[in-house]
Predict the structure.
Amino acid sequence: MKTLVISDTHLASVFNKKKFVFLKELIDSCDKLIMNGDFWCGYSFHFDDFLRSKWSDLFPVMHKKKTTFIYGNHDIASFMDERADRFSLEQRQSTTLDIGDTLYHIEHGDIFFKKRYYTADWYMQLHRSIRLNTWFNYPLETLLFKTVPIKTYSALFGILNTTIKNNSRHLRGDRHILVTGHTHLPEYNPDSHFVNTGCISFGIASYLMFHDARPEFVTMKY
């Protein structure tokens, strides 16, 4: 039994075939998928447009893998409706995996920050109309990941994972490990009862795969 945990794919209004192929092959390799938030970007386009996009070709394989969808800050519950059933069997704020002698508590991670997201209609319309993520935020992060080694990037912005760890002590310890995304900073630190699955975007792929009870943490370029 192979269970895959990924986050922060940030599927946006501009289709990326290279990312699509990588995601399809990766998801197809598992038996169960947990999509831990920021699957698609509600700041880039409306849910209706996402469902009609080429990204929808991922939905059959995701449904086949009995996907559990965890809401992120880019795809909060109010951005979506019951049609989320097209790519997931259930939608939740968090979930728990009981594997071996460890409980993995999985949630996106934005809740551990004071500044989480904006949902005002005027803000969403402005963000989508000027396509801020498409033309600035995502290209900038892609450039950073291409020019700065991931270890250096993680060291520069490591305070973000530290913030999660400082604010999540009640979810970590003993046999509990917290698994988040959100920061785009991959970190596998079971001794501190913490894992951040990073992202699959901007040319970087990091994820957590359980082979029965054995965890495998992968970071690579795609």
The domain at 2-221 is CATH 3.60.21.10 (Purple Acid Phosphatase; chain A, domain 2). The first strand starts at residue 2 and ends at 6. The radius of gyration is 16 Å.
